[in-house]
Write a structure and sequence with these properties.
The chain is of the alpha+beta class. The chain has five helices and 20 strands. The chain folds into three domains: 164 residues, Beta Barrel (Porin); 116 residues, 2-Layer Sandwich (60s Ribosomal Protein L30, Chain: A), CATH 3.30.1330.60; 94 residues, Cupredoxins -  blue copper proteins (Immunoglobulin-like, Sandwich), CATH 2.60.40.420.
Length: 458
């Protein structure tokens, strides 16, 4: 017993030193307690005695919200069945309570276990309950199994008091919250008005000039009024007036590229209509080039009769299907300024534009082409192919002749001053030059085609 006490005393001292520091901040249970209890043991039949009566005393430390450590002492006296002798057992040791639940005041159900020793070793384990009546007083009850060196397993009941004492460290006051920031003065700021949306890309109303302002990649405009002579790719006078407006619109929008699409009605074969629409689309592109629109900004394609927008069963529907369309294939408005011109104002060239307006037949080109390129002969030939006169300049002796042969896919004309000679595909035309001089000519259908005849005195 003395040996056991020497081991228990340091543990008790350490417990009393650390108990106040481990109490949970929100725990109101005092750090120490004293628990005197009466004990009753139901004697094992193998003991050969009557039930035991005695007492148990616990000196405990509250180490956590759900954990108490105790120093225990116990004394039990067992009565003799033959009324001649009795048996007394006293022991001391350590125990622990683990609470399954517990209130802030300390009430709760716990699991108890301890080891006590004297001449023999005793183990107690079971359940207990603390019922706190106030902060400094409570009732404690336990139902345990008393095990004496594994020889006897006897039920034991302890009922008594729980008397807390000591004091918890003062709670640290929480710092006062900082004062609220001063209210922020909210000043309503009127949002700037959004920029106006760009104008829609729509065909012009009757009598209004054509405009490409607002047009972007993928937009399409049908050029109503761009018509041709019957069964030809020759533009009508009214068509050239409208195309002049188209060239001005393209000049104001140097950032866009377009496709010129030709369409026909359903009369005739697919091959015939494809060829005719190709020629008409190319004729529009050629005319726009003479007005200063760069060739690399335009492509032309004929769709024939395959893309109808109306019924081909009526004259009105067929008229709608015979059309020229302008489709924007590329656009980048930031690449150049878009300027709107006043009606009747001459076209302006936007900085960065691809090309500048040019005459129908550039004078510089004619002057350059006037230089002789070959020796004069009595006869000269010119081939018309790929929308070009080849060669552009020919030399003949005065009194000689020049023959033009149309090797192209469409009809062309050789236009002299006051004279228009139409040459169909595969046909030829011969003209004599009796006097010396320089004679310029062009194609009456495709104005970008021009050439020069130089008649040299013999």
């Amino acid at each position: 017993m003395k040996h056991l006490c020497r081991r228990l005393i340091p543990a008790v001292i350490a417990t009393t030193m650390i108990a106040p520091s481990v109490v949970h901040a929100a725990d109101e249970v005092l750090p120490f307690y004293f628990a005197p209890m009466g004990s009753y043991v139901f004697s094992d039949d193998g003991r050969g005695t009557k039930d035991g009566i005695g007492g148990t005393v616990a000196l405990g430390a509250h180490l956590g919200r759900n954990f108490d450590l105790e120093l225990l002492g116990s004394y039990i006296r067992f009565g003799s069945k033959d009324q001649q002798s009795s048996m007394s057992q006293g022991a001391g040791g350590l125990g622990a309570n683990i609470y399954l639940f517990r209130t802030d005041a300390g009430s709760g159900l716990f699991i108890h276990g301890d080891v006590l020793g004297s001449s023999k070793t005793y183990y107690h384990y079971g359940l207990g309950y603390d019922l706190m009546v106030g902060k400094y007083f409570g009732i404690r009850a336990e139902g345990l199994i008393r095990n004496q060196q594994f020889e006897h397993h006897e039920p034991q009941v302890n009922i008594g008091l729980r008397i807390p004492f000591g004091s918890n460290p003062p709670k640290q006051a929480l710092p006062a919250p900082p004062p609220p920031p001063p209210p922020v003065e909210v000043v309503a700021v009127e949002a700037p008005a959004p920029p106006p949306p760009p104008p829609p890309c729509t065909p012009p109303e009757a009598g209004q000039p054509i405009s490409l302002d607002g047009c972007k990649k993928g937009d399409n405009i049908v050029l109503r009024g761009v018509n041709f002579e019957f069964d030809k790719a020759v533009l009508t006078p009214n068509a050239t007036v409208l195309l002049d407006q188209v060239s001005e619109a393209l000049t104001r929008r140097p950032d866009i590229k377009v496709e010129i699409g030709g369409h026909t009605d359903a009369k005739g074969t697919v091959k015939y209509n494809k060829k005719l629409s190709d020629a008409r689309a190319a004729s529009v592109r050629t005319y726009l080039m003479t007005k200063g629109v760069s060739a690399d900004r335009m492509t032309s394609v004929g769709y024939g009769k395959i893309v109808a927008i109306a019924s081909n069963d009526t004259d009105e529907g067929r008229a709608l299907n015979r059309r020229v369309e302008l489709t924007v294939t590329d656009s980048n408005p930031e690449a150049g300024a878009v300027e709107s011109l006043q009606p009747g104002a001459p076209p302006e060239i936007t900085p960065g534009a691809d090309s500048a307006p040019a005459d129908v037949v550039p004078a510089a080109a004619i002057a350059a082409s006037a230089a002789p390129v070959a020796a004069a002969s009595a006869k000269a030939t010119v081939s018309i192919i790929d929308y070009e006169y080849s060669p552009k300049t020919v030399n003949v002796v005065a009194g000689g002749t020049v023959t033009w042969t149309n090797n192209d896919r469409v009809t062309h004309t050789v236009t002299f001053e006051g004279e228009d000679i139409k040459i169909k595909q595969g046909e030829s035309y011969t003209k004599s030059y009796p006097a010396a001089g320089t004679f310029a000519y062009k194609c009456g259908i495709h104005p970008t085609m021009f050439g020069t005849v130089v008649a040299v005195a013999p």
